[in-house]
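Weekly puzzle thread! Below is a chain. First person to post its structure in token form gets bragging rights.
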Amino acid sequence: MACLFGIVAGFFPRVALFIVWITTDLVDRAFGPWILPLLGLIFLPFTTLIYVLAYSPVIHLGNGRWLWVALAFAFELAGYAGTNRARGAR
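Winning reply:
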């Protein structure tokens, strides 16, 4: 059961970003070319999702919105570090 939870939690940001990308124009407004969000979808999906949701065309990431993106990036790095730590413990 824990493995199933881990798999679902790992794919949720990718699925959410993909749905936002297809149904709205938020990803196109936040990024220029399509390759950047695709790389974000593969390598840093949670950070990319938060960036897309926090981006505003008028103020970009002003008014403390960088904090949310930085927290998402730290959260993602902590997840990758935990994975490497568990792999090294085996």
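Puzzle host: Confirmed. Bonus trivia for everyone else. The chain has a mean pLDDT of 83.
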